[in-house]
Amino acid sequence: MLTINDLLQALEPLNKRLAGLEQGQQDLKQDVAGLKQGVDRVETGQEQLREDMKTLDRKAEAILAYQKQAHTEIMERLFESNEATGQEQQRLEQRIERIEKHLGLPPLK
Question: Model pTM?
Answer without folding.
Answer: 0.54
